[in-house]
Design a protein that fits this description.
This protein is mostly helical. It is built from 8 helices and no strands.
């Protein structure tokens, strides 16, 4: 059965992809207020696309890949925006972002080298981490830096990206919508029996 790829969740993900160059332009031209508005809209549409897809049974393999690609663009812009506009607010704690970014890039590299594509695992830890990080980004760019929320977002990022790298190293073929490392290992044990 052919997937119906034109649906509301995929259109929301596609919107986020289309805004990527515009967000980059806003960073380069230092239009922080406009950047904050569009980044916050992107964060809301990121939550909505997955929610709508699950509730209305509109999940597709194409949509999972499109959402993951849009997520990468949103993450790139959010972090670039932090380093451009919010470095002073974060102070010394901005250095905690480097391990997060290294794990994020490592996950992309492992997936591209091993599978020749962007990962679209959507692990439970990644979803939870993404929500915490999205809330932090939203609060940071809409209002102010909240240190305890920042530490939660960074910690969730460390855990979720580390799990993603491990799962990518274990998988033998690319997969979408993998629950997590526990389920991957459980499936492998079941397959060996």
């Amino acid at each position: 059965m052919k997937e119906k790829i034109i649906n509301l969740p995929n259109l929301l993900s596609f919107y986020r992809l289309l805004t990527f160059p515009f967000l980059v332009w806003m960073i380069l031209t230092e239009k922080e207020d406009l950047f904050a508005i569009f980044l916050c809209v992107n964060l809301v549409t990121d939550i909505l696309d997955g929610l709508i897809a699950r509730v209305f049974k509109l999940e597709t393999k194409f949509g999972a890949k499109l959402d993951s690609l849009a997520d990468v663009g949103t993450y790139i812009c959010a972090f670039w925006g932090i380093f451009t506009f919010k470095q002073d607010e974060l102070g010394e704690s901005i250095h905690l972002l480097w391990p997060f970014l290294i794990l994020f890039i490592l996950g992309l590299l492992v997936s591209f080298v091993k599978f020749r594509q962007s990962p679209s695992l959507h692990l439970y830890a990644s979803k939870i981490g993404g929500y915490v990080q999205g809330i932090y980004f939203f609060v940071l760019f809409a209002w102010l830096h909240v240190p305890w929320l920042y530490f939660m977002a960074v910690g969730a990022g460390y855990l979720s990206w580390l799990e993603e790298v491990i799962v990518l190293l274990i998988l033998k073929e690319p997969q979408s919508n993998v629950k997590g490392l526990y389920w991957v290992l459980k499936e492998q044990r079941r397959a060996k029996k």
